[in-house]
Structures are given as structure tokens and as C-alpha cells.
Design brief:
- The complex is a heterodimer of chains A (about 100) and B (about 260).
- Chain A is built from five helices and no strands.
- Chain A has about 100 residues and is mainly alpha-helical.
- Chain A has a domain at about 30-100.
- In chain A, helix 4 (about 65-80) packs antiparallel against helix 5.
- Chain A starts with a helix and ends with a helix.
- By secondary structure, chain B is mostly helical.
- Chain B has two domains: about 5-175, no CATH class; about 185-255, no CATH class.
- In chain B, a hairpin with a 4-residue loop joins strand 1 and strand 2.
- The model of chain B is unreliable at about 235-255 (pLDDT under 50).
- Classes of the chains: A mainly alpha (about 100), B mainly alpha (about 260).
- Chains A and B meet through helix 1, helix 2, helix 3, helix 4 and helix 5 of A and helix 1, helix 2, helix 3, helix 4 and helix 5 of B.
């Protein structure tokens, strides 16, 4: 850790709050620029996908356990299970796999 | 909006917030563990969770604290990881009473998360801010307490259990990206390409030295940027998270 933690906290709050409060207070009409709108639409999916893989394999002691948890999570989310269920199943799966199988 | 309406809306929001809070407890517990690993105290992590209310954003932020990133990198990472809230905030702005006092916008903005936004927007018509406040009143403590517990108890839990719990965050990310990917082939393609690109970036000599936060920013701007030009979204319905693409490139900004 090199910076002051409270300054990190302040930056996290400042930037995340600005993102949320500016459109709500300033933009009363829909954004017209289609490319910008499209970009904003795609951003979360790309960001979360980049953050999930390969990190999920690096977070587990055995990469295969993370990979199996990813596959199970994708399957459950695909068939419409809730975020809570997907998260819990991934957790239990990794625990059981790493403790008893790998 | 009379007084009884306001109380009823708050209660309704609170009730809708209970399952959110339970999910938040489990997920933010993993965030607390990550915060502790990054050298943050329970107070620091708890205050961050209370103020920031962002799963992916805090994940990236805590990781950066641990890695000792620059303040600029922190701002960039938080911006990119939370950009989706801009769309939600924009969408929410269309659903508020125009004559509503301004300070409500300031408070409601704080509570824009995937889940609170989701329940707020789920009922038809204009949104009474008390509904959102009701959901926030239970969901935000859940998120904060879970984080603090993660910092404190995470250290005394066995390592294999801690590892397993930290996977909960990835489970949550998967649950956010997969349902829209199922409905939209472009999003599905982007999710696959993003994961592959992230994997290649992290394993390549040179590029592998990039921090996770910087890799996220660079890949997001490149991949989402190219996608915005190649597949401009025709109609965005942020309420349901669905988008329809036009077959032909558009006149304004479509790549040909």
C-alpha cells in the first residue's frame, strides 16, 4: 500500500457518487448520441467479464476449481437463477472441490 | 403524495430491500476479506462500503489499495467499474416527479446500485423517493455490516473457506452479465471476447505486468468502444436491460 487509505476511500466515494448524481441532477432528457449510448450500454458487461476471467481461476488454489465454479455460475444464471443463488453455489462448489477433491 | 402514501411506499421499499440485504451480506463479506488482505481496517472498509455501494467498483478499488496504485488509477478504475450507474441514473431521472424537491435527487443518487435501481424501477409510473429510501434503509446496512464482518471474521476463518467465500463476488458478476448475454447475441459475444482478451493480456509477457485495474480500463475502452461503433444500440431499455441492434450501420457514427 503506498497511498493514504482515507484518500483512496474519498476518491472511491467522490467518483462513484459523481457518476450517480450527475445524470440524475443534470440530464433531464435522454442522451442523443447513439455511439456514446451504445458505449455506455456495453461497458458494464465488458468490465465485469474482464474482471471475472481469468481472476476466478487465480483466486482459487487450483485453477480448475475456479473454472468449474465459473461454468456452474454461467449455467445457473443462464437458466434464470438469482444472483444470490449463483453466488452461493459458486462458493459451496469451490469449497467442496478444494477441500475434498483437489 | 400525501403522508400515508409516503409511509406505505417506504414500507413497501423496505420489504423489497430485505432479500437484497441478505444477498449483500454474503457478497460484501467477501469484499471485507479482500479489504483486509489489502491492509484496510474494519472502519475503513465499512465506511467505504457505506459510501460507495458498489460491488465491482469496490472490488477493483480494494485491489488497487492493496497494490498501492496511484490516486489517478483509483479514480479511473472506479469510473470504469461504475460507469453503468450513469445509464441507470439517466434512466431513473426520467421516472421522477418533475416537481419533486431537488434534495431527493441527491439522496436517491447515493442508492443507485444494480439491485436498488432494479426494484425502484420495477413498479410502473413515477417513483416515490420513499420507496427507494425504504430499500436503501435495509440494503445499505446489510452491505456495510457484511463488509465489516468480512474484515473481522475473515481473518479467523480457515483459508479454504475464505477462498471459497471470495468466489461469491465472481458469482455475482456472472449473475449480472449472463442474463443480458442470453437475450442479446452482441453482449454474449462481448462477454466471451472480453474474458479471452483479459486472459491473453494477463498471460502475455510485458502486458501481464499491467495491474488488474489498468487492464480493466484499457480493455473496457477498447472492446466497448469498438462494439459501440460496430453494433450501435438501437433502442435502450435500461429498465429490463435489453437492447436491440439494427441490422444496418446507422448514419450517425455507425462503422461501415
Amino acid at each position: 500500500m503506498s497511498g493514504n487509505v482515507w484518500i483512496y476511500v474519498l476518491i472511491m466515494f467522490g467518483v462513484s457518487y459523481a457518476i450517480r448524481v450527475l445524470p440524475l441532477t443534470l440530464i433531464r432528457k435522454e442522451i442523443k448520441n447513439r455511439t456514446l449510448r451504445s458505449f455506455l450500454y456495453y461497458v458494464p458487461y465488458v468490465t465485469l467479464a474482464v474482471m471475472t476471467f481469468p481472476a476466478i481461476m487465480d483466486a482459487t488454489a487450483t485453477p480448475a476449481a475456479g473454472l468449474i465454479a465459473l461454468a456452474a455460475g454461467v449455467f445457473l444464471a443462464w437458466i434464470g437463477r438469482s444472483m444470490f443463488e449463483v453466488a452461493i453455489v459458486a462458493v459451496v462448489l469451490v469449497y467442496v472441490l478444494e477441500r475434498f477433491l483437489f | 403524495m400525501n403522508r400515508e402514501d409516503n409511509i406505505r411506499e417506504f414500507k413497501r421499499g423496505f420489504k423489497n430491500g430485505i432479500p437484497i440485504a441478505l444477498g449483500y451480506l454474503a457478497v460484501s463479506f467477501a469484499l471485507g476479506i479482500l479489504a483486509a488482505e489489502s491492509g484496510m481496517s474494519a472502519t475503513q472498509a465499512g465506511v467505504t462500503s457505506f459510501l460507495v455501494l458498489a460491488s465491482a467498483g469496490q472490488y477493483a478499488g480494494f485491489t488497487l489499495v492493496g497494490a498501492g496504485g496511484t490516486y489517478l488509477a483509483m479514480a479511473g478504475v472506479i469510473f470504469v467499474a461504475n460507469m453503468r450507474y450513469m445509464l441507470m441514473s439517466t434512466s431513473l431521472s426520467q421516472r421522477l416527479y418533475p416537481e419533486m424537491p431537488f434534495f431527493h435527487r441527491l439522496f436517491m443518487a447515493w442508492g443507485i446500485t444494480d439491485e436498488i435501481f432494479g426494484v425502484s424501477i420495477s413498479s410502473p409510473g413515477r417513483i416515490n423517493p420513499r420507496f427507494t429510501y425504504g430499500a436503501m434503509a435495509i440494503a445499505i446496512p446489510g452491505w456495510t455490516v457484511g463488509t465489516i464482518l468480512g474484515v473481522i471474521v475473515g481473518n479467523v476463518l480457515p483459508q479454504d473457506l475464505v477462498t471459497a467465500l471470495s468466489i461469491g463476488l465472481y458469482g455475482m458478476f456472472i449473475a449480472i452479465i449472463i442474463p443480458p448475454a442470453k437475450k442479446n447475441k452482441v453482449v454474449l459475444g462481448l462477454v466471451i471476447i472480453s474474458m479471452l482478451a483479459s486472459w491473453v493480456f494477463s498471460r502475455m509477457p510485458g502486458l501481464g505486468n499491467l495491474s488488474e485495474g489498468n487492464r480493466t480500463i484499457i480493455l473496457t475502452i477498447i472492446i466497448a468502444g469498438i462494439a459501440a461503433f460496430l453494433f450501435p444500440v438501437h433502442e435502450i431499455d435500461t429498465t429490463s436491460g435489453r437492447a436491440d441492434q439494427e441490422e444496418a450501420p446507422s448514419q450517425n457514427g455507425g462503422a461501415s
